[in-house]
């Protein structure tokens, strides 16, 4: 064999070894990622969510909202949880994050995991798995999820509005932003079914009530909305909310779709979902079948949870979920 052929063979062998080593170093997201490093990780998160939900049932809504606000903004990396610093503003302080709360409970889960296996479980995985468990607490489906995410080191506040849909945007814009994450139309319709639980602050609703009531709202629902939101300019710090679903406000079910088909959707995005020709067929299908809703929700939730994660040696495992390690090391 010529020296040139030997060199070429050696190069191929080196490339194969390098590729193997790289894959060994970064397996990406996998099922039961912590089976050796922290076998009880998912059980700890599940038990903590149960305990916190028993004490504060509204936490389940917060966990569900967390995954969307984190994973939809470029990467599922727990950047949402970072506090502001002198150099960067927190995503939590942006207008699109209005009303988000209960972040301290993520920290409680993190502390429990640190006692079990210090420095192993990422805040990103805690955020995703606590959202999954929150859905279960509310009566929704259990969704098997891969783990192995690592935490980002910086806030994405400056690009948040580019990625996170607003409740007043056109359905075309909303569809486009979801499509960028790989979530198709039925997936979008299913994820917005999260509006089946929780509540919406009057700040987000008054434009449909004042100075004149939106004629597209169901008249039977307007009186309730006006009672809950009596001020044209509500105090953002006041406890002025309307339940997303008056019928089953604490149950994750398909009642949301029946409501919006009856023009009882609170926000414009809810109304558009039930009237746009691209989304209405799926709304009607989910209104008829909770099994179909759960199936599509589980599929879309999984795609959302796997949006561009940091794995392998990228990012870090934060010691505290609200602070990047480099700040306090």
Automatic annotation (TrEMBL):
PROSITE patterns: PEROXIDASE_4, PROKAR_LIPOPROTEIN. SUPFAM superfamilies: Heme-dependent peroxidases. Its EC number is 1.11.1.7. It is found in: Secreted. Pfam families: peroxidase. Keywords: Biological rhythms, Calcium, Disulfide bond, Glycoprotein, Heme, Hydrogen peroxide, Iron, Metal-binding, Oxidoreductase, Peroxidase, Secreted, Signal. It catalyses: 2 a phenolic donor + H2O2 = 2 a phenolic radical donor + 2 H2O. It comes from the Eukaryota. Ca(2+) 2 binds at residues 245, 248, 253. One of its GO terms (cellular component) is extracellular region. Its main location: secreted. GO terms for molecular function: heme binding; lactoperoxidase activity; metal ion binding. Disulfide bonds join 38-117, 71-76, 123-321, 202-229. Removal of H(2)O(2), oxidation of toxic reductants, biosynthesis and degradation of lignin, suberization, auxin catabolism, response to environmental stresses such as wounding, pathogen attack and oxidative stress. These functions might be dependent on each isozyme/isoform in each plant tissue. This is Peroxidase. It comes from Prunus avium.
């Amino acid at each position: 064999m010529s020296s040139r052929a030997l060199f070429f063979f050696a190069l191929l062998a080196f490339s194969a070894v390098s590729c193997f080593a790289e894959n060994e170093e970064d397996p990406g997201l996998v099922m039961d990622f912590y089976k050796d490093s922290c076998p009880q990780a998912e059980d700890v998160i599940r038990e903590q969510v149960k305990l916190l939900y028993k004490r504060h049932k509204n936490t389940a809504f917060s966990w569900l909202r967390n995954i969307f606000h984190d994973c939809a903004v470029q990467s599922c990396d727990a950047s949402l949880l970072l506090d502001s610093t002198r150099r960067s503003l927190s995503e939590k302080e942006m207008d699109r994050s209005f009303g988000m709360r209960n972040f301290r409970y993520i920290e409680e889960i993190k502390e429990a995991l640190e006692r079990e296996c210090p420095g192993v479980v990422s805040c990103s995985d805690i955020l995703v798995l606590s959202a999954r468990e929150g859905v279960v607490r509310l009566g929704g489906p259990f969704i098997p999820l891969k783990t192995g995410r690592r935490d980002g080191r910086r806030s994405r506040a400056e690009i948040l509005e580019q990625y996170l849909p607003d409740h007043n945007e056109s359905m075309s814009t909303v569809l486009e932003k979801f499509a960028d994450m790989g979530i198709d139309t039925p997936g979008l319709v299913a994820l917005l079914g999260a509006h089946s639980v929780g509540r919406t602050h009057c700040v987000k609703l008054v434009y449909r009530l004042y100075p004149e009531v939106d004629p597209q709202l169901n008249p039977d629902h307007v009186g309730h909305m006006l009672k809950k939101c009596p001020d044209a300019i509500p105090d953002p710090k006041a406890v002025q909310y309307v339940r997303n679903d008056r019928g089953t406000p604490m149950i994750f079910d398909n009642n949301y779709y029946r409501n919006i088909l009856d023009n009882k959707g609170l926000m414009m995005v809810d109304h558009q979902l039930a009237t746009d020709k691209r989304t209405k067929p799926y709304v009607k299908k989910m209104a008829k079948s909770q099994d179909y809703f759960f199936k599509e929700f589980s599929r879309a939730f999984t795609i959302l949870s796997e949006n561009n994660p940091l794995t392998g040696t990228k990012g870090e495992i934060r010691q505290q979920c609200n602070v990047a390690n480099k700040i306090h090391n």
